[in-house]
Amino acid sequence: MQKGKLIRKQDNRLRIETKLGQLVAYPSSDPAHPGIYIDLKREGAPCMAPVALVEFTDDDCSDSGQDIPPSIICRVWANAMEEDYTDAVVCQNLDEYFK
Which tens digits make up the pLDDT trace of 12-24? Predict the structure, then answer.
């Protein structure tokens, strides 16, 4: 299959072929935090490796423990062997962008 080719499936997932496997994007199931997961799938593997989650949040805290305003946050699994994400980045200046 051609690398980088977009594949649409009936299972509500978006798949992109890469040299490392398929990047699979699909909606999260948490209605309080709507978002999109991106996982890596390899042929023959029984499960997918988490890569990222981009989601809305209105109940998160910063590393210093302060509440952050309603935001879009990107959570990244820089170490696929870890169950929890390793990094979180809050998207900044979105309101200003759309002015």
Answer: 899 999 999 999 9
Q: Which domain holds residue 24?
A: 6-97
Cβ(77)–Cβ(95) below 8 Å: no
In a domain, 58, yes or no: yes
Query: Which pTM does this prediction carry?
Result: 0.85
Q: Is residue 1 part of a domain?
A: no
- Give the total number of structural domains in the chain: 1
Helix H, strand E, coil C: the string for the chain is CCCCCEEECCCCCEEEEECCEEEEEEECCCCCCCEEEEEEECCCCCCCEEEEEEEEECCCECCCCCECCCEEEEEECCCCCCCCCCEEEECCCHHHHCC
What's the confidence (pLDDT) of residue 2?
57
- The first and second tokens of residue 60, run together, are 């998160």
Residue 56 has pLDDT above 90, yes or no: yes
Q: What single-letter amino acid sits at 93?
A: N
Give a yes or no: residue 37 inside a domain.
yes
